[in-house]
Amino acid sequence: MASSEEDGSGNGSLEEKENGKKRSLGALATAWLIFYNIAMTAGWLVLGIAMARFYIQRGTHRGLFRSVQKILKFFQTFALLEVVHCAVGIVHTSVLVTGVQVSSRIFMVWFIAHSIKQIQNEESVILFLVVWTVTEITRYSFYTFNLLNHLPYFIKWARYNFFIILYPAGVVGELLTIYAALPYVKKTGMYSLRLPNKYNVSFDYYYFLIIVMFSYIPLFPQLYLHMLRQRRKVLHGEVIVEKDD
Ligand SMILES: CCCCCCCCCCCCC[C@@H](O)CC(=O)SCCNC(=O)CCNC(=O)[C@H](O)C(C)(C)COP(=O)(O)OP(=O)(O)OC[C@H]1O[C@@H](n2cnc3c(N)ncnc32)[C@H](O)[C@@H]1OP(=O)(O)O
């Protein structure tokens, strides 16, 4: 298989810098990241296969979330380590960008899909599940092959092109799911705190969800633009100076 180094797309001096960066990462950190990325690729692959098998055997998406939720919860929660990787500096990317991405996913898994059983069979849940799965198989295999210095060009291409469609599709799936959850949250008053209470504070999960939905408007474009910048850097060799967090 052609690697990025072999496909002629590389730039000599840039490549030397990249190799230097990998060397300076340290053997232990590199070994850990290889293990982590292989485990995550395998986890999302298992999830993808489980979803495909479920759909082929049952011919419906109803019950799919319930059947794959354990694998999803485990591997999506494990992704919290990505924020740790950035914070300790073994991965050169923004803690803020990674934090927003990971926390929004954790929120969708635990505080929406897990907590509100009535929405688990919504088509929008399947939409974001499929989109996340394709994204993560591509992304983690990209990191793994990259760390091993044998990156097939089609994986690099997929990593920096699929998101153009998948990111908005995932956002649509997530927003429609939160929207579907609103009536249940309003009816049950779940996770809400009404006055009077001994803490003398009130919290309304229903309005919190509406705020979360609106927060996609400023936050999502920043993640998307970040990925477009990464795309220009990696696929077209543009040198981009990013501001620190
Ligand atoms: C509490 C309530 C919270 C509510 C919040 C509401 C927020 C709402 C807005 C959020 C919307 C999110 C929607 C989203 O969930 C929808 C989807 O995800 S749909 C699926 C499509 N998504 C994607 O394609 C994006 C996937 N995500 C990412 O790519 C990353 O998470 C992101 C942080 C966005 C970008 O990644 P990164 O900055 O790391 O870019 P690169 O991949 O190019 O990597 C940069 C360098 O870091 C090295 N790296 C990164 N991770 C690793 C790793 N695990 N192992 C090894 N190396 C790693 C990478 O190699 C690069 O290094 P270098 O530049 O040196 O080559």
From TrEMBL:
GO cellular component terms, semicolon-separated: endoplasmic reticulum membrane
Superkingdom: Eukaryota
Pfam families the record matches: PTPLA
Known catalytic reactions: (3R)-hydroxyhexadecanoyl-CoA = (2E)-hexadecenoyl-CoA + H2O; a very-long-chain (3R)-3-hydroxyacyl-CoA = a very-long-chain (2E)-enoyl-CoA + H2O
Metabolic or biological pathway: Lipid metabolism; fatty acid biosynthesis
Principal EC category: lyase
Biological process terms in GO annotation: fatty acid elongation; sphingolipid biosynthetic process; very long-chain fatty acid biosynthetic process
Membrane topology, record value: Multi-pass membrane protein
Name listed for the protein in its UniProt record: Very-long-chain (3R)-3-hydroxyacyl-CoA dehydratase
